[in-house]
From TrEMBL:
Family: Belongs to the class I-like SAM-binding methyltransferase superfamily. RsmB/NOP family.
UniProt xrefs under PROSITE patterns: SAM_MT_RSMB_NOP
Lineage: Bacteria, Pseudomonadati, Pseudomonadota, Alphaproteobacteria, Sphingomonadales
Molecular function terms from GO: RNA binding; RNA methyltransferase activity
GO biological process, one term: RNA methylation
Keywords: Methyltransferase, RNA-binding, S-adenosyl-L-methionine, Transferase
Keyword Nucleotide-binding annotated: no
Domain SAM-dependent MTase RsmB/NOP-type: 119-395
Domain of life: Bacteria
Active site: 335 (nucleophile)
EC number: 2.1.1.176
Organism encoding this protein: Sphingopyxis panaciterrulae
Cited PANTHER family: NOP2 YEAST -RELATED NOL1/NOP2/FMU SUN DOMAIN-CONTAINING, RIBOSOMAL RNA SMALL SUBUNIT METHYLTRANSFERASE B-RELATED
Binding site for S-adenosyl-L-methionine: 234, 261, 282
Name of the protein in question: 16S rRNA (Cytosine967-C5)-methyltransferase
Amino acid sequence: MTPAARLQTAIEILDAIAAAAREGGAPADTIFAGAMRARRYAGSKDRRAIRSHVYDAIRLVRSAPPSGRAAMLALADRDPALAALFDGSPYGPAPVASDEARAETGLASPALIDLFDPLIGADETEAMLARAPLDLRTNRPAGTRDDLAALFPEGQAIAGAPDGWRLPPETAAVQNPAYAEGRFEVQDAASQYASSALDAAPDMAIVDLCAGGGGKTLAIASLTADRADILACDVNRARLRQLPPRAERASATRIATRLLDPGKEAAMLADWQGRATRVFIDAPCSGSGTWRRSPELRWRLTPARLDRHVADQARLVDIGADLVAPGGKLLYAVCSIIAREGRAQVDEFLNRHPGWTADDDMLPAGIGRAAGRGFLLTPARDGCDGFFLARLTAPC
Ligand SMILES: C[S@@+](CC[C@H](N)C(=O)[O-])C[C@H]1O[C@@H](n2cnc3c(N)ncnc32)[C@H](O)[C@@H]1O
């Protein structure tokens, strides 16, 4: 493909990604993979170049653009070599008209930035779109962090995460045989902090209410040396199905899974009411703390979708609270930096549940900032994904 044809292909893929973002369709990676399958004539160099145009444009443009071309023109304004490819050559983009619209650039719309936790300063926004490192977590039963240091000497320890080892972005760590042997997992430091903050220990009875594919469930199993019973739940069958093979690889033997029906979660967990020593709720959210990995998430966030997340979170935290044994703890986590999903959610929970208290000693020294009655982690301050965490203790 010519450089201009690659650029035109990137524009067409961006059209599809923007439409999917508006309509709640497939994620960008899925659309990109499908578009490449449909263009079998594209070689690996073409694919790399197209991918880089697409993701550079997504990072630059702050919300779903009116067209892929408007997004690419915004990128071309900053890159004369790219601008020169709008030359009207066969299969390439048409020349730029004098009055052509550009997509708006920046981190997010001012209305969305207004929703961030008030702790977040303007100096923190750049890191929210910078490339994320690749963080690994030692699987305790199968190894130590020293093993990771020997396997990947180019890495470094992660502050406050005793099992964490940080590598440069895009390191092909999972191709190392030690991954298939279950000696480590790929897991961002924020998820490691969240799992440790649950304060789980051997012999506890633990419910992971929104376990997904089990990233944090496995971290909790590792922290308890596989000596606690963990019930991993989710409403998404495809995600939950990933957990048993992952648990087997990690030699985690005490994780059971339970697929829940939306709206019937409490009834389907009736046997756990008031029995769990720990409940972990990694709630569905805007994902606004993970824009550095999935920048197109900010193209997807609408006021209506945010309202739905906030309502789901409140419902899930109430369902989770009913599972907690007297004196037990509930860890509420969202990979979000939006105050309504974080500190406000916890304030409202504590108003609805007299007798519950928020813990203030849940993170390692130097990690996170107190945000209301929970803690905020951000890429700029903590070097990890943006997260809000709160640990709540039930009355005895
Ligand atoms: C942030 S993800 C969890 C990620 C997971 N904990 C991990 O570490 O990989 C949120 C999960 O909540 C699940 N979810 C959404 N609504 C739910 C509900 N009503 N009950 C249980 N899980 C739900 C989603 O399917 C999704 O897997």
